[in-house]
Every structure is written in C-alpha cells, then in structure tokens.
Amino acid sequence: MTFTSDALAGRVALITGGGSGIGFGIAKAFAAAGAKLVIASRNEERLEGAVAQLKDMGAEAMAVTCDVRDPEAVKAAVEAAVTAYGGLDIMIANAAGNFVVSAADMSTNAWKTVVDIDLNGTFYCAKAAYPALKASAHGGRFIAISTTRALEGWPGCAHAGAAKAGIMSLMRTLCGEWGKDGIRCNTIAPGAIGDTEGVKRIYEDSGRKELELSSIPLGTFGKTSDIANAAVFLCSDAGQYITGADLVVDGGRNRSRSSTGVALPKTEAAE
Length: 271
Ligand code: HXC
Ligand code: NAP
What we know:
alpha/beta, seven-stranded parallel β-sheet, 8 helices, 13% strand, globular, binds hexanoyl-coenzyme A, binds NADP nicotinamide-adenine-dinucleotide phosphate
C-alpha cells in the first residue's frame, strides 16, 4: 500500500540516518509522496548511493555528511536544505547507535557515545530545525524515532533505552512549547523491523531472533515501509491534528510481554 504521489508535495524533509534501514525506508516513501529529500549521516558513500536511488524514483534529493553529535554540523545540514530547496518542513531524527552489552560491562564512553548520538543528536536536530519548521507553510513536522523498549527497561541496552526515554520526554516538552508555532512533534516507536541493522545487532547476532518473533502477535518482523507509512501519515495533511503522540508500530509486541520484558509462551492458537 502506498499514499498518493502528492501526499507530501511541496514539502522538504531532512532525515538523519536516511541512507540505510528505517531512515532510507522513510526517504523512499517520502520521495514517492512528492517530497524533496535531504539525507544526512556520516558515511558519504552510502548516502550517495541512496540519493542515486531516490533520484531514480524521480525525486529531488541530496546528501549531507554530518555527525549528529556535532551541533554545528547538524545546523549546517539544515542550512544546506534551506539553501537548496528554499525551506524545511519536516525533520526526522532517526540516526542512532546501539549494541548489546550489560550495564555492568558497559564502559562510560560506550554509554556516552549512544546517549550523544540518540538523545543529544535529537536535541541538536530540534534546535537547528526550529526556525525553518516554524516558517513552514504546511505546519512543521518534527518526528523522532523511538522504540517501545524506551519505557519498560531494556536489559542489554541500558544506554539506548535511557536515551530513547529521554527522547520521548523531550518530544512531549516540544509538543507543549511548539504547538503555538504550528509544529507537530511526535515519536514513532517501531517494534522489531526486519532487514535492519537494529534487528541484526539486537536479536539476530545474540541468537534471540526466534524468541523475539514468538513474542509478536502478528507473527512477523515489521518492514521498513511500515514505519515509513506511519511517517508519511503524520507528515501529511491527514496528520495535521496529531502532536505529542507516540505512534507504536510493532505488530502488537508491546502488548504481549510480561512487565519484565520476557516473551510469553506461544499458545497453540498463535501457531
Ligand atoms: C561494548 C562497545 C561496543 C560493543 C562499541 N563499544 N561497540 N562496547 N560492546 N559491541 C564501545 C567502544 O569500546 C567505545 O568505548 C565506545 O563504545 C565508542 O565506540 P566507537 O567504536 O569509538 O564509537 P563510534 O565509532 O562513534 O561508533 C558508534 C557506535 C557504532 C554506536 C559504537 O556501533 C555505530 O556507528 N553504530 C551506528 C549503527 C547502529 O548502531 N545501528 C543500529 C541502530 S538500532 P571505549 O570505552 O572502548 O572507548 C537501534 C535500536 C534497535 O538503535 C531496536 C531493536 C531492534
Ligand atoms: P541503521 O540502518 O543502522 O540506522 C542508523 C542510521 O543512523 C544509519 O544510517 C547511520 O548512518 C546513522 N548514524 C549513526 N550514528 C550517526 C551519527 N553519529 N551521526 C549521523 N548519523 C548517524 O539502523 P535501523 O535499525 O534502521 O535504525 C534506525 C532507527 O530506528 C534508529 O533510531 C533506531 O533506534 C530505530 N529503531 C529501530 C528498530 C529496528 O527494529 N531496526 C526498532 C526500534 C527503533 P552512518 O553510519 O552513515 O552515520
């Protein structure tokens, strides 16, 4: 299923981490919906490959090399978008880092690295994009990619869990502060999305793929297009009255776990 080709016509979107995984999925869906794209991250070669694919789809697209831990680099990425396309209507803070390590074994720099990318990077995106989003004729959209794990504790990923919980709090604050400027601030919380670096690192490499799958009522990992469709909806006119929301897109996983995060046994009916 796709949206109409003009659902985001006339909008300019900047997506951090837009060259891979969920971010690239969002970029492709935005391109199909008529948006102009700026994708920003560290790996220039991968970004250029992604831009070529977006251009093949008929979209206007450009890459900006940027480490979201550097507020000046994030500001420069926003300025590049405004200079190239005349404004910025949508900012998607999607860039993130994560790896499995227990809190007891986690170095202080490992903690700092993930919090810097995920939480601080999201704040730098918000701060840099604010003036342009406020000026958007469509009503600015600021979306951060969270996770359902943010508020339930995340054994093995204390750094990412805490950072994503911080992002959710930040976004609720921005909803309250920026509504007067017409800027809608929402998080999207993906469950486990297949064919992504996240699922590879957190579930496949640690041998927990089958356990994870068994905890999902709909029975499969999600697709990057599932998250992308949620983003198109929130950024289109159809999402104009939604701000301060956390849109969970997880096949029901968040509702099928005990409070300790342990997957419940499968019933025969679920086979
Ligand atoms: C323990 C680790 C580690 C690991 C890195 N570190 N990997 N510690 N186990 N597997 C430690 C390092 O030893 C170092 O601490 C510190 O973390 C910083 O590591 P660097 O390699 O110097 O960092 P950097 O080059 O900046 O790379 C950042 C990164 C990297 C996060 C470590 O993995 C990265 O670039 N990731 C981006 C892609 C990614 O993570 N995608 C998945 C997103 S999924 P010391 O003390 O030695 O200096 C996601 C949610 C998934 O976010 C949801 C569920 C499916
Ligand atoms: P991914 O492909 O590894 O995406 C992460 C992106 O962030 C990459 O494109 C990476 O590009 C960029 N990035 C990382 N560190 C950066 C930095 N310091 N500065 C700028 N860009 C940086 O993984 P993914 O699984 O698609 O994850 C995308 C988002 O979804 C993340 O926010 C993640 O937490 C969230 N999420 C994913 C899942 C899942 O199932 N996959 C579930 C819940 C939430 P460069 O390497 O080029 O910098």
